[in-house]
Design a protein that fits this description.
Layout lengths: L6 H17 L4 H19 L3 H24 L4 H28 L1
Helix pairs in contact: 1-2, 1-4, 2-3, 3-4
């Protein structure tokens, strides 16, 4: 997978949706809406919907920020979420940079 074509972001959102589904077995009222939201964002990013890309960027940035706090407090498994969020944000920023370069070359 190459950064900048949004495949990494789609995969990360799908993985987070699956993790939320797993957590939904214990607390369905809390985690199932997030699982649905993750899957909807993954689909929107897959079809390159600009609104979904913007919402995903903000959503993953907030998730990264909170996961870093959990990691600092000692929840080591949040390190995986930090890594996934970082990769997805890097992928989206590479996509935006490529769009900007194409626009400047025209």
């Amino acid at each position: 997978m190459k950064f900048g074509d949004l495949k990494v972001t789609t995969l990360v959102l799908a993985i987070q949706g699956l993790l939320a589904l797993y957590q939904g077995t214990k607390f369905p009222e809390v985690y199932l809406p997030f699982a649905l939201f993750d899957f909807l964002l993954a689909w929107g990013v897959y079809v390159s919907n600009k609104t979904a890309i913007k919402v995903s960027l903000v959503y993953l940035a907030i998730d990264l920020f909170l996961a870093i706090f959990y990691l600092i407090s000692g929840v080591l498994l949040k390190g995986i979420i930090v890594l996934l969020d970082f990769l997805a944000i890097h992928d989206m920023l590479s996509y935006i940079q490529d769009l900007y370069r194409e626009e400047q070359s025209l």
